[in-house]
Design a protein that fits this description.
337 residues, Rossmann fold, 7-stranded mixed sheet, 6-stranded parallel sheet, 11 helices, 15 strands, binds NADP nicotinamide-adenine-dinucleotide phosphate
Length: 337
């Protein structure tokens, strides 16, 4: 399967900018080479990283014109390279994002990926749930469980709780028997976050985060902070920690430099899911955590909205940039031509 050349429809952008720069075009598609699989995409999970990349604000730049986009998809293996034994045509898989999406971007009907960039879909999970599962849950699992050592009874402060990763972190904390204290900026999502299992919601635009966390923990402070925002607000998270607590910084929704609390001693860890996802051992552990959680119902992807067709990608990005969503935005892809 190394010589078949054809085309696929894919979302490209030729200049940096807002959602309008996203275009659906026909692009060349080669067959899978050694170690590669050809994925027929059924659903695409959106990540904030893709909006940042499209705007030129991610940690690496796109190559323009003609950049691809997209970390996360669920679909069906359509063909494999001649030496690939782990997967066969017809296998249901999802991407385990650890690649330059300017090259391998999965906003497409079909994409060729190295086999280490896919994992089997959790048993029984449909394409939409699978497209919403890997990056959120593996980041929550890797950041909270493997990096911070989250344990039953811990108070864990989860910022941007309505984000894709935030909703997964709430479920992960509950699954471990920890107590999720969750932030959102305004009042609009307070009830939704309580419904999703937050033990308490702190609206950062109107409430004093440090005072609230101290009040909710009998003055002790949270054991762990799990933060996707960064910026100057990062210092307050350290201030809200118990002595010797751990703050894990995994995102930069606020692009300004993160500032450090003087509430010492505290441990600050940064978290990059791609570094862990590069190892088969982590992919196996995260897959087991996600699969068992979806199987027993302790994890259930929160899907904010589903858009039908690659042509709706710009609308899906507009929703993401509106910040009004809770959970994951998914774009489904119809039957390929
Ligand atoms: N390190 C890693 O391996 C890793 C993995 C996955 C994601 N990430 C990062 O994690 C972050 C979250 O990604 P995501 O896809 O889960 O996000 P998302 O679903 O797009 O959620 C964003 C939400 O965060 C809240 N927020 C708080 N401050 C914000 C700000 N300054 N600008 C925009 N939104 C803000 C908003 O909710 P409220 O209105 O409720 O406050 C907003 O709806 C991103 O920085 C992403 O790059 C990192």
């Amino acid at each position: 399967m190394t010589t078949t050349h054809r085309t696929t429809r894919a979302v490209l952008f030729h200049e940096l900018g807002g959602p309008d720069v996203l275009k659906v075009e026909d692009v060349a598609l080669r067959g899978p080479g050694p170690g590669e699989v050809l994925l027929r995409v059924e659903a695409i999970g959106l990540n904030r990283a893709e909006a940042l990349f499209r705007a030129g604000a991610y940690y690496y730049p796109p190559t323009l014109p003609g950049s691809r986009l997209g970390y996360e998809a669920a679909g069906v293996v359509e063909a494999v390279g001649e030496d690939v034994r782990a997967y066969a045509p017809g296998d249901l898989v999802m991407t385990a994002a650890n690649f330059d999406f300017g090259v391998h971007g999965v906003y497409a009907e079909r994409a060729v990926l190295p086999q280490e960039f896919v994992v089997p879909r959790p048993a029984g999970a449909d394409a939409v749930a699978s497209a919403a599962a890997w990056l959120t849950y593996s980041t929550a699992y890797g950041g909270l469980v493997e990096t911070a050592g989250l344990a039953a009874g811990d108070h864990v402060l989860i910022t941007a709780g309505s984000s894709g990763v935030g909703t997964a972190a709430i479920q992960t904390a509950l699954r471990l028997g920890a107590v999720p204290l969750v932030t959102t900026r305004g009042e609009a999502k307070r009830q939704r976050l309580l419904d999703l299992g937050a033990a308490h919601v702190i609206c950062t635009e109107s409430e004093d985060l440090v005072k609230e966390v101290r009040r909710l923990t009998d003055g002790k402070g949270a054991d762990i902070a799990f933060d996707g925002i960064g910026g100057p607000g990062f210092a307050a998270l350290g201030d809200a920690l118990a002595t010797g607590g751990t703050a894990v910084l995994y995102g930069f929704l606020d692009p300004r430099p993160a500032t450090l609390s003087m509430n010492w001693p505290l441990t600050v860890r940064t978290y990059a899911n791609g570094a862990l996802a590069a190892t088969e051992a982590f992919r196996d552990r995260a897959s087991a955590f996600i699969g068992s959680g979806l199987g027993n119902g302790t994890l259930a992807p929160v899907v904010a909205e589903t858009f039908d067709g690659l042509e709706r990608m710009a609308d899906a990005h507009r929703l993401m940039e509106s910040g009004t969503h809770t959970g994951k935005i998914v774009v489904t892809v119809g039957s390929p031509r």
